[in-house]
């Protein structure tokens, strides 16, 4: 064709799709104020956009859109067996946001959803209502950053801080917020509380560069963790997923040294570790879109879950654990 | 392939001239024109015609991941802020009759205004039509085209581009004027197409050299007398190894010249090879 001109890809959130019903919700307004130049498209139901057939997740990752919706139906779900319950009886998770601003090759969201666009359910008050009603029956351990990284998204929608404030006044509720962010500013104006656990997923820098696209560096994450601990936050470290890759032993050895050179082990609440694992159907979908080291590995199946072959899994776990216990007592380590 | 679907010949004419398209004598009720990687089909008026022509083109000439389909034509505008000749990219397409709504995936920047389009099964004139019009603009084909194209292509490769002709008050369509209006908009449309083509090329290319792997698999299949399931496994193992190490293991050639005598022996070599490949 004539005059081939290179134009640009649209910026993230160039378009914001909003369910008509929540167009004047206060959270919608907060979000829209941050994107004055985005094109607004009114929709009836988020699924019209999010669940379209034949979407290309990989391409959407280069230009993610925001979809603002109202959550209906269930607000809390029982914790899946692939996740640690840390000894809590009532382990649940909740989903205020689908998808993430980061893009890890191993992320199960890539197999779970047909779209890379980010859905935000703005009606957080309904989640709080539901949690309050459950708390009347029994205590609750709740993972609130399950299908996303809500701390990393705080500057787009303030759910992280809203959850912190809400949880502080509810002693029967313990929340875990899993994150890879290194943005300490988000924590600055908030007060730590006993029943809030900030869980940082850490990976060696080599792994970050290879598989955790757009996430902050290891040293930046460690800096933030250090500050959080100094300021009284309870911090969990998640070395999960541990990945099998070229030179993995050297990489993870150096990594543990780096982590515990910066973080005093006894100040950590606990640690969770686990190798890469993913439900079979999710991997199947990921493979169709992504050709990479994660999707191509010849995993073995066990009860509908794909993970490394037994021998390799054992080797990785034993190796990692044997090194880890040189820094931190085994009683603080949760394994899956 | 880039598929252009227009309702009328005067709309098509602008593209035929600009891209030097030639008439294709295919047995069908539609007029079809083709050029370098472009196929243009004139659907005729109406939602059903647009759907049939789109389905015909995408079935007859094939659809793959990188194919793009565009419905381009004139429209009536409800929005006061629009002007005659404005070229518009539709970010929402409403079928007035079925109430189904479609959303193209707009992943690239472009120089067009964005609007919502409502497709009606009849022409709309503001002084006689009393219902609410939801779209910023109206036409009679967009939704039919979109729904049909979406059965074959991804939503980032299916778009409606409309050019304002009237403000729901037209009396008669002037063919020459239509051609001229479309012609004026071609630079925007061409730029949009080029960007889409580039994006599809850059981001949908497979990074694994399938050819190379197939060759190695064939060699090992015969030297080790592998079963079908072992061959399948081997292919996966090789892909995974190459992507981790960027190459084949150095000692793989040792396995090429083995001539196993029994299934058992083949299995032993296969296990050995497997160990090397999972490292
Ligand atoms: S940070 Fe977590 S949620 Fe986000 S892409 Fe990575 S693994 Fe997925």
Automatic annotation (TrEMBL), chain A:
It holds the Pfam family SPL. GO terms for molecular function: 4 iron, 4 sulfur cluster binding; DNA photolyase activity; S-adenosyl-L-methionine binding. One of its GO terms (cellular component) is endospore-forming forespore. Signal peptide: none annotated. This is Radical SAM domain protein. It comes from Caldicellulosiruptor owensensis (strain ATCC 700167 / DSM 13100 / OL). The lineage of its organism: Bacteria, Bacillati, Bacillota, Bacillota incertae sedis, Caldicellulosiruptorales.
From TrEMBL, chain B:
It comes from Caldicellulosiruptor owensensis (strain ATCC 700167 / DSM 13100 / OL). GO terms for molecular function: 4 iron, 4 sulfur cluster binding; DNA photolyase activity; S-adenosyl-L-methionine binding. It comes from the Bacteria. This is Purine or other phosphorylase family 1. GO terms for cellular component: endospore-forming forespore. InterPro entries: Nucleoside_phosphorylase_d, Nucleoside_phosphorylase_sf, SPL. One of its GO terms (biological process) is nucleoside metabolic process. Residues 6-103 form the Nucleoside phosphorylase domain.
